[in-house]
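step 4 of 6: structure.
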Amino acid sequence: MDIIVCVKHVPETAEAEIKIDGTGKAIEKNGLVFDINEWDDYALEEAVLLKEKFGGTVTAITVGSEDADSVLRKCLARGADKATRLTDPKFEGSDGYAIARILAKVIKDLPFNMILTGTQAGDDGYAVVGVILAELLGIPHATMVKKIELNDEVAKLNRELEGGLEEIVEVKLPAVLTIQTGINEPRYVSIMGTRKAMKKEIKVLGLAEVGLGENEVGEAGSWIKMEKMYVPPVEKQAEFLKGSPEEIAVKIAEILKAKGLV
Amino acid sequence: MREIFVLTEHRQGQIRDVTFEMLTKGRELAGKTNTELTAVLFGKEVKNHAKILSDYAKNVLLVEDAKLENFNSEAYQKVLSNLIRERKPLLTLIGHTSFGVDLAPSLAVSLGTPLATDCVDLEFEDEKFTVTRQMYGGKVNVNAVLRKAESYIATVRQATFPVEKGAPMNGEIIEVPSPLSEEITKKRFVEYVLPPPGGVDITAAEVLVGIGRGIKDESNIPPVEELAKVLGGALACSRPIVDKGWLPNDRQVGSSGRTVKPKLYIALGISGAFQHVLGMKNSDLIIAVNKDPKAPIFGVADYGVVEDLFKIVPPLKSKIQELKG
């Protein structure tokens, strides 16, 4: 079972305060911590679990700048065998379609039975790369996968639907599966593992090596182009309770009492 | 006249709400672009659905086939791409749901049609198609323009556009023969499964204390659970807590979990991503505690506290206990 896992290097923003930078089209990246996209983290773990069960190899691929090496090192430390970074200034401004096209161009020449990636990325949230990649490669796909069972050439999958419901579907391999968070428990990496990973080679390919033209990548090769980024307009704003924690606790207790909730 | 397509989403005999939300938005867009609104419906024996849709759309394109009984992206893509090639709608709207996410991207590639996903607003202006999307878990909005094309596809966020029925449109139901002559071979629907219920029904609780990423560690949960108990309520959570295995999935509030409407919802360390908010925004009273003053949760909360939740929980618990005597 040879598996390719596509990962992305993204800023962690769930608990961080975000500012829009001077271009008005991006956020201020200074001071943010970057890591593997959360969904891809689960995809990576699933790939390694499958390798441990069925043998084979795991190859991690990313489209990103040199900074994304930290994510590839993490993949290698966690059990990936090879890592490739696709880097070129011309790739900047790529939407999910252009990213998938870059990935497809490289992956089509690699041996694989399955491609795993996250259902979406925590930054742009397009949720398109895996499915577009599948279509470009001419293979089936399934999204929002929460469980994988392999029987010969068929993967039996649980897909997450809305309201706690799931569906079971069968997909013929090779296929692209996009992984939903919570499918497994991503492992921690030992210091030994991290050290070993530092010595492994990361293959780097640019636009020419990938074999695409300038107008097939970046903004030129994208379906959508960002015009403006802004803080969402506030329709309603909470009344903020201020003071020391003790004073705030008193205020909350008074509100609850007034509403008959205690 | 050119059309705006809305792909009907239905499951287990029910048309899903997102369909009517898209039809409402589609009606507005059709008016502005001088196009006709067309509902597209695939299924097996779904004429009753077609009848309902005819109130909301000028045309209902109905394709019936046993292979379309349950959603299957392979089958849907074949049928929908045929219809789009034939009728060249200006725009095709699909829900940004587990169903749309599985269909729209490959459909767009197969047609060579630009796609924008998870849109919270859409606008045509002077031949320019602009969408509004969110990034970074709803912390910023983005206006984005699609590459100029004959036809566009957009997936639309659920529960974003209100449903307005308006005057019944008495749409024409147009039956289209199914183009699916061959078997669907790559993908097969097997069955629906509902995870077994756990011990607590959060949808029945009058008071819920919801925890999110800010809880940091599993060992921090018991003191918060005590607060919930003192308030006579139950503990709920956002998605990351279930993903980490710290609480069972029947405690999850949000689009992929439960929808709740308690008298009191206290959100602790929950940033307020859209998916969570969808499940709790109709609570009677919402109090949120979060360190980030710009956290979107403060846009739905009645009262907000910008503070570390661990500093608030202990004094709050003792104040409530005092009040109770």
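step 5 of 6: annotate
 - Chain B has a mean pLDDT of 96.
 - Helices of chain B lie at 17-33, 47-53, 73-87, 100-111, 221-230, 239-243, 274-280, 309-324.
step 6 of 6: archive
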